[in-house]
């Protein structure tokens, strides 16, 4: 197993690796890519944050050569520490065709538990071709609106909700400036998009508190961050973006067939 992040303990790496191997053996699949997708991947985990492991897998050839549609998701029961689920390859590629932001985030996770290098390189190239800044804008704007509506009604806010909102808002900034896919790592978003010192100060204060707190911790509203959120969301409503560079599904069909056959 490989990981590019030191925040995951050796014991947890071993447990995750064992879990992924058990999934392969139980479901008769081959995992091609596995990463961290939650707050640990984003870079603002609390003391009691769980591990959100996500993966892409491929079945044996016989699984695809049947008339009846089968379940294309594998999910392990969630426990106190580990939340593990994955998408079958054709499902992942259909989502990529629609520029699904969740899938794109997986590909940019700074914490990778396993990847088939050749598979990942081609998948990343296809993701860039099918990426839609317009759909990405809509996704992060919807997250921002939903968080504001449900979690920011009072003077006290659950700290992790501030980061969910901030991450979506900074992704909107990123998309506006570069039109490219936003990174998963929160620190990269902050470095590239936050120029105001007062906002940086409030973010650093929140990060310090969250790293020493539990998921349920509440805190006071932050005026500089709130102003940034308001201004960004107003500007995001007016953003205009080009269509994706590629709409040719035959590229995905060809890649899908190649990967299935190579793993059988």
Quote the beta fraction.
5-15%
The radius of gyration over CA amounts to 19 Å
The H/E string reads HEHEHEEHHEHHEHHHEHH
- Helical segment tally? 12
CA-to-CA gap between the ends? 22 Å
In this structure, how is the largest beta sheet organized? 5 strands, mixed
Record the strand order, biggest sheet.
3-4-2-1-5
Provide the structure class: alpha+beta
Q: Can you give the helix content as a percent range?
A: 55-70%
What is the arithmetic mean of pLDDT?
Answer: 90
* Overall outline: globular
Low-confidence stretches: none
Could you explain how this protein is built, in words?
- By secondary structure, this protein is an alpha+beta fold.
- Helices cover 55% and strands 14% of the residues.
- The protein is built from 12 helices and 7 strands.
- The chain has helices at residues 10-27, 39-42, 61-64, 89-97, 101-107, 117-130, 133-151, 159-178, 186-193, 197-211, 223-236, 249-262; strands at 29-36, 51-59, 73-75, 82-88, 112-115, 156-158, 218-220.
- It has a 5-stranded mixed beta sheet with strand order 3-4-2-1-5. A two-stranded antiparallel sheet has the order 6-7.
- Helix 7 runs antiparallel to helix 8.
- The longest helix is centred in the middle third of the chain and has 20 residues, at 159-178.
- It is globular.
- The mean pLDDT is 90.
């Amino acid at each position: 197993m490989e990981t590019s992040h030191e925040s995951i303990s050796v014991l947890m790496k071993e447990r995750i690796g064992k879990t992924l191997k058990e999934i392969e053996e139980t479901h008769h699949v081959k995992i091609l890519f596995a990463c961290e997708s939650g707050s640990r991947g984003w870079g603002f985990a609390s003391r009691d944050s769980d591990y959100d492991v996500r993966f892409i897998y491929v079945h044996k050839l016989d699984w695809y050569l049947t008339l009846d549609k089968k379940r294309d998701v594998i999910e392990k029961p969630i426990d106190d520490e580990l939340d593990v689920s994955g998408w079958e390859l054709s499902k992942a590629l259909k989502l990529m065709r629609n520029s699904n932001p969740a899938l794109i985030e997986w590909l940019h996770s700074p914490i990778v538990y396993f990847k088939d290098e050749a598979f990942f390189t081609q998948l990343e190239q296809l993701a860039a071709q099918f990426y839609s800044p317009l759909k990405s804008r809509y996704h992060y704007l919807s997250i921002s609106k939903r968080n504001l509506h449900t979690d920011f009604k009072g003077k006290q806010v659950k700290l992790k909700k501030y980061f969910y909102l901030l991450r979506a808002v900074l992704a909107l900034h990123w998309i506006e400036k570069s039109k490219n896919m936003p990174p998963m790592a929160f620190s990269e978003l902050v470095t590239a998009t936050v120029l105001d010192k007062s906002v940086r100060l409030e973010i650093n204060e929140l990060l310090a508190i969250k790293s020493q707190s539990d998921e349920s911790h509440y805190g006071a509203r932050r005026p500089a961050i709130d102003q940034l959120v308001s201004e960004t969301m107003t500007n995001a409503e007016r953003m205009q973006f080009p269509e994706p560079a590629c709409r040719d599904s035959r590229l995905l069909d060809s890649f899908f067939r190649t990967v299935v056959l190579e793993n059988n």
